[in-house]
Design brief:
- With about 160 residues, the protein is mainly β.
- The chain has 2 domains: about 30 residues; about 90 residues, Sandwich (Immunoglobulin-like).
- Helix content is about 10%, strand content about 35%.
- It has a 4-stranded antiparallel β-sheet, with no helix packed on it. Strands 3-4-5 form a 3-stranded antiparallel β-sheet, with no helix packed on it. Strands 8-9 form a two-stranded antiparallel sheet.
- About 5% of the residues have low confidence.
């Protein structure tokens, strides 16, 4: 008697993924060292935008206390360093998967010469660090008024009518 087996095209992918997960877990997490899953470093996501007065960075750092964030400017380089600590609870929890990243991070940004390093502010609210980098006055756009008419200006003299 012939047995029909239903073909599932993605079953092989699931099996392959399970094997890869097991291989990586066995390779990088020694027996009894599950906490090493939580010590990987990470790089928080950053949005950078600019207007005529500022360059602004918004850095996602949820779950990090403001005292654990360090913002510095040195030699036209902005460095943001921080750490998200893994909070181990008293009761034993059996984690099946840890996707949130923990550990320390450092992000560095080379600043353009238009930034005034003395006028930098940082504000932390709801897990977002907002850094405003003010531009120097000479870097801000200047509008030149265009005069219309028949007046000409001679060097060292006021306006005169053209002949």
């Amino acid at each position: 008697m012939t047995v029909l087996t239903r073909w599932e095209p993605f079953r092989e992918f699931t099996t392959l993924q399970d094997r890869m997960n097991r291989l990586l877990r066995d390779t990088f997490v020694p027996e009894g060292r599950e906490e090493s899953l939580t010590t990987t470093g990470f790089a928080p996501l950053v949005d950078v935008y600019e207007d005529e007065h500022n360059i602004t960075l918004k850095i996602e750092v949820p779950g990090i206390d403001e005292k654990d964030i360090d913002v510095r400017i040195e030699d036209n380089t902005l460095t943001v360093h921080g750490e998200r600590k893994f909070e181990k609870e008293e009761k034993e929890e059996n984690y099946r998967r840890i996707e949130r990243q923990y550990g320390s991070f450092t992000r560095t940004f080379t600043l353009p010469t238009t930034v005034d390093a003395d006028k930098v502010s940082a504000h932390y609210d709801k897990g977002v660090l907002k850094i405003a980098l003010a531009k120097k006055a000479e870097a801000k756009p200047k509008q030149i008024k265009v005069h219309v008419g028949g007046e000409k200006t001679l060097e060292g003299k006021g306006p005169s009518k053209a002949a």
